[in-house]
Write a structure and sequence with these properties.
Helix content: 10-25%
Radius of gyration: 30 Å
Distance between the termini: 55 Å
Largest sheet: 5 strands, antiparallel
């Protein structure tokens, strides 16, 4: 979509916001807040406002394993059918550290007698689950009890899967490997900035409708680093319906709309506001106007059409 600019319109405005300067915090973790402008931004009735995410700086201090998102596992004692709930402590895990934690947890269960091994095969890019020192499987990993809170993507297992840990062999059968390739960052690949300004600027596959996303920033650094959105990446502009911006409600989420806890750190964003000329609405024609236009096109076509017959020789 193109917009018509003119020299009579005001220059672009940049609103720099630090989440630590919020006028009102709307969440306990600082992921949702309201910022009120002392000098509201206005546009006349003949113009409309375009908003876009100009830049942002976000510390990667949130976790890839989070409480209430992907940290619940149930273990089944195959001998008696009893279950044990294990809640993974929230934190940032690597492939190796998550596998080591799972191995130590299984080994510590009171009803285990074998030696449990959870390793990551870099060739197959999958976890290997195996028990040695026993003749029959003892434990199953059950992700069906908490299907929406289980780390099935992080462990490379299917949703609702119940995986029996097999007795190890020297052949390394496929039954010992995770169903899929694990992704410890599977719960978050992008950081999204959502505001009350962008109610009809984009769609997303989660809501299957209009979304409040102002900008989505891919994570291309390791945890502990800084996630940047550069001004050169500012390409998507959203036309908003209001002519006055007095306050901005902002929310920082993952790519599924779940709030991100920065664990006490703050983030900075810059929002660009442009004024554009308001397009005049095109009114539908009534029957008389439509007939005049149709006759005009008919007469024009008849006049311009070539005459039939043989050309006259000189």
């Amino acid at each position: 979509m193109s917009y018509q600019l003119s020299t009579a319109q005001e220059n672009s405005k940049l609103i720099y916001i630090n989440s630590g300067d919020a006028t009102q915090s709307l969440s306990n973790d600082g992921s949702v807040f309201k910022y009120t402008l002392q000098n509201p931004i206005h546009s006349p009735d003949t113009e409309e406002l375009l908003v876009s995410l100009y830049s942002c700086v976000i510390p990667y201090s949130f976790y890839n394993i989070r409480d209430g998102v992907n940290n619940r596992i149930v273990f089944i004692n195959l001998a008696v059918g009893a279950t044990t709930l294990f809640t993974i402590p929230p934190g940032n895990y690597t492939i190796s550290s998550l596998g080591s934690l799972l191995q130590r947890t299984i080994q510590s269960l009171s009803y285990t007698s074998g030696t449990y091994i959870v390793t990551y095969d870099r060739i197959k890019m999958k976890y290997r689950f195996v028990v040695t020192g026993v003749t029959e499987p003892e434990i199953a990993i059950d992700l069906s009890v908490y299907p929406d809170l289980a780390p099935f993507v992080e462990l490379g297992l299917a949703k609702n899967e119940v995986r029996v840990i097999p007795v190890g062999t020297l052949l390394f059968p496929d039954s010992e490997y995770s169903t899929n390739c694990p992704d410890v960052n599977g719960s978050i690949h992008q950081v999204q900035i959502r505001t009350n300004l962008s109610s009809k600027g984009c769609f997303d596959s989660i809501t299957k409708s209009y979304s409040t996303i102002l900008g989505s920033i891919p994570i291309d650094v390791n945890f502990g680093g800084i996630i940047f959105q550069q001004p050169r990446d500012n390409k998507h502009k959203i036309l908003i319906s209001t002519h006055k911006i007095e306050s901005i409600t902002m929310r920082i989420t993952d790519d599924k709309g779940r709030a991100l806890n920065l664990n006490g750190l703050t983030f900075q964003v810059a929002i660009q506001v442009d004024s554009v000329e308001k397009k005049k609405p095109v009114l539908p024609m009534d029957r008389i106007e439509r007939r005049v236009v149709e006759n005009h096109h008919y007469l024009r076509k008849k006049t311009e059409s070539p005459k039939r017959g043989r050309p006259i020789e000189n």
